[in-house]
Amino acid sequence: MNFESKLSEVSKRIKSSIIRELLKVANNPGMISFGGGVPDPDTFPRNKLAEISKEILENEHRFVLQYGTTEGDVELKKGYINLLKKYDGIDWVKDENMVITVGSQQALYLVGMTLLDKNSYCGVSRPIYLGAASAFSQRAPKFINIPLTKDGLDLEYLERELEKLYEIGEIDKFKFVYAISNFHNPGGVTMNLEKRKKLVELAEKYDFLIVEDDPYGALRFEGNKVPSIYSLAPNRTILLNTFSKVLAPGLRLGVIIGDEFLIRKITMTKQAADLCSPSLTQRLAARYIQRYDLYDEIAPTIKLYGEKKDTMMKAIEENLGDIKDIDWTRPEGGLFTWITLPKGIDTMEMFEMAKMEKVLYIPGEAFYVDEPDRNTMRISFCLPSHEEIHEGMRRLRRVIDKYAKEKGIEI
Amino acid sequence: MNFESKLSEVSKRIKSSIIRELLKVANNPGMISFGGGVPDPDTFPRNKLAEISKEILENEHRFVLQYGTTEGDVELKKGYINLLKKYDGIDWVKDENMVITVGSQQALYLVGMTLLDKNSYCGVSRPIYLGAASAFSQRAPKFINIPLTKDGLDLEYLERELEKLYEIGEIDKFKFVYAISNFHNPGGVTMNLEKRKKLVELAEKYDFLIVEDDPYGALRFEGNKVPSIYSLAPNRTILLNTFSKVLAPGLRLGVIIGDEFLIRKITMTKQAADLCSPSLTQRLAARYIQRYDLYDEIAPTIKLYGEKKDTMMKAIEENLGDIKDIDWTRPEGGLFTWITLPKGIDTMEMFEMAKMEKVLYIPGEAFYVDEPDRNTMRISFCLPSHEEIHEGMRRLRRVIDKYAKEKGIEI
After folding, report:
1. DSSP character for A148?
2. Rounded distance between C-alpha atoms, residue A240 and residue B325, angstroms
3. Which DSSP category does A324 fall into?
4. Does A27 reach chain B within 8 Å, measured CB to CB?
5. What is the DSSP letter of B333?
6. Beta strands B209-213 and B174-180: pairing type?
7. Probe site for chain A from B62, B174, B252 (most A CB atoms < 10 A)
8. Into how many domains does chain A fold?
9. Start and end of every Aminotransferase class I/classII large domain (chains A, B) (predicted)?
10. Could you tell me if B341 and B260 lie in one domain?
11. B27 interfacial to chain A (CB closer than 8 Å)
12. With left for phi above 0 and alpha for psi between -120 and 50, is residue B315 left, alpha or beta?
């Protein structure tokens, strides 16, 4: 039978993640990958988690093996509320302000499904985090692509777009601005405090929500922590976070924090989507953060990432620094830097050469929902060794030279 | 701010599960609940799972704590493929025909999101499983409510509706029929072989898909196993199953089996929804079914449920048998029976009296997406003890007598 004709409109258009496809060669022998943003599994506290999991399966089986509530494990919520108090000075969050999700991907998805329609608008960064684009696209809304600058979203651009919507009487269909406030993926940049305040002002003036996604905030190597947008405007900000970067991605634990009414609605969407998250993984994380200081535990990992970031900055400077018009971001945390190469270089087309030189990156075009800047790439520094970072960048330079020569692009 | 105005159309309409609300009193002292369909947690193999979880966290941490593929753990797929061979004689299923989901609720949800649009039609049983209704409703399709009879869906009714759609040129918008083939929730009935074959004929004639949901099939106490619809028409059937009833619901593991193209599309929807299921719970189940014979392990549980079903049938006969026009289903497996009381009795209204008499059931109106038959109720027999089943039915009779008397309904 013709299955295509049976698909929903969205499913007819949906494409699989380019990254997935590109990274299939990541494990080929000799390959150096700056592609994936996955943490090093050897940094996960496997023995502590093994102990706890045995314990809770034996002693708390009536909870961990049974259906849970859609809202999530109250023990995990309690632990997370304590972290918010201790590390962010946020002391007003209650159980009713929080729902536990299957990773922050589900958090993004539930927010999109709960707030967006086909005729809705949402503001996103340009470039945008791929997972957010695919999550929001399930409702096929209209994206307003806000250029990402070194200190966050270009709010002048946003304000002009909001004014246009206001003038054509569509402003009420503008639902939210989606912002990765710290160490943006893929951009590597952090929104400064002035812009966070300005964004809140705009949200109040034009009456929209802010969806603040902060998966990397805990991974700061240097510089000073900036107050979260949520802490500036808890009444109109939905805060998304995850345990994937600070504990282990395989547990698939994310969290949505916000106004009680919105959380209730998001919870109903989750009820339809999967009824509840696994009780076992939730209680496992709950007991872990009860017993250990999550941030003390990951401090060595953060130090490691910070050193690799320094090495990466050095390696880029040394190997690519002299390329005409080249630009790259200098992250104070997180996992990524974003490189912009001279116009005319198509990093997707160049990818084949990179594969042959055994170095991988993510072509920038994976991170746009409009016409992409094809001369960009995302570089991750968390997994390769210091030596691999230097060697990978030497290879990348060879690739760029070869490609530019073939195309007659002057670099 | 006015959050309501920021919600998607679907979220404005969505309601929380009635069952959830009703069962909040289930744990009150002295309460006998025929409400929830949850298995007894003491039947879960907690010590075996504790052993395995410790093992895999220590020895397979690079897998169980890391992101997995959206399709799911190949080890779990391998184990499930073996079960299909061993117990259903289905020997053609490959990895590409299968995606692992976060419980069968997510399976239902992904199927709905991948196949349905607002202008689509789907055929569902009347009464319908609540979880399926809420999952499919996320795309707000048009439901064709097919009456459920003692031997499954009323296919004459379905055929008449299909003819109507054909005549008005809408038949191509009819996407699938959703059928719980064994021990229907809430109906308790099983679709006989003739009807399964007839449904396949209709699917071929009118070119639609069949979504076969079989969470209870393994819980057969008596009678002979009926070949699955999927085994009759693998080319146009999507088979949904879950480990919740045969292993443990807290692991949230479901599976979707079907044509490779559809599975790929469903996988892309899952990629947007949550990226991947937890690696830990998947590998835990994989090692368990590798090491133990799943069905040998649950045989005692099935025997237990079967005995409770017999007790329930006896208790209904003894306590309600003489009520005028009363009818109830006699399940050969699963967890539920469906009672139809005399016209005029509103089981939702009667629920308050039941609470006072300390006996709980699920009012039938929770299981309709059209005007409900208010004189129905779902009764679960898996959790209460034999004594509680008898006492609970005595209490229910008192409730019915009291309610009928007040309303002047002759029973």
Report:
1. E
2. 54
3. T
4. no
5. B
6. parallel
7. B252
8. 2
9. 31-396
10. no
11. no
12. alpha
Last residue within a domain, chosen from B254, B269, B296: B296
Are B340 and B265 in the same domain?
A: no
Do B59 and B184 lie in a common domain? yes
B160/B21 same-domain check: no
Among A279, A296, A313, which residue terminates a domain? A296
Q: Which of B105, B116, B279 sits opposite A250 (nearest CB)?
A: B279
Return d(Cα A176, Cα B16) in angstroms, integer.
24
CATH of the domain at A10: 3.90.1150.10
Beta strands, E only, B204-330 = 209-213, 237-242, 253-257, 327-328
Is A38 in CB contact (< 8 Å) with chain B? yes
A329 and A359 in a single domain? The answer is yes
Residue A213 bridge partners (DSSP): A180, A240
Question: Any alpha helices (H) in B101-187, and if so which ranges?
Answer: 103-115, 130-136, 155-167
Say yes or no for a CB contact (<8 Å) between B117 and A175. no
Find the domain containing B367 and state its range. Answer: 3-44+298-407
Asked whether residue B324 falls in the same domain as residue B180, the answer is no
One domain for residues B14 and B64? no
User: Chain B contact for A24, CB < 8 A?
Assistant: no
CATH code where residue B268 lies: 3.40.640.10
Per the CB < 8 Å rule, is B276 touching A235?
no
Tens digit of pLDDT at every position of chain B (411 positions): 889 999 999 999 988 777 777 878 888 899 999 998 788 888 899 999 999 999 999 999 999 999 999 999 999 999 999 999 999 999 999 999 999 999 999 999 999 999 999 999 999 999 999 999 999 999 999 999 999 999 999 999 999 999 999 999 999 999 999 999 999 999 999 999 999 999 999 999 999 999 999 999 999 999 999 999 999 999 999 999 999 999 999 999 999 999 999 999 999 999 999 999 999 999 999 999 999 999 999 999 999 999 999 999 999 999 999 999 999 999 999 999 999 999 999 999 999 999 999 999 999 999 999 999 999 999 999 999 999 999 999 999 999 999 999 999 998
Helix (H, G, I), strand (E, B) or coil at A316: helix
Residue A210 and residue A328 in one domain: no
Question: Judged by CB atoms within 8 Å, which residues 262-321 of B form the interface with A?
Answer: 262, 264-265, 267-269, 271-281, 284
Tokens representing residue A344 in the block: 């005319």
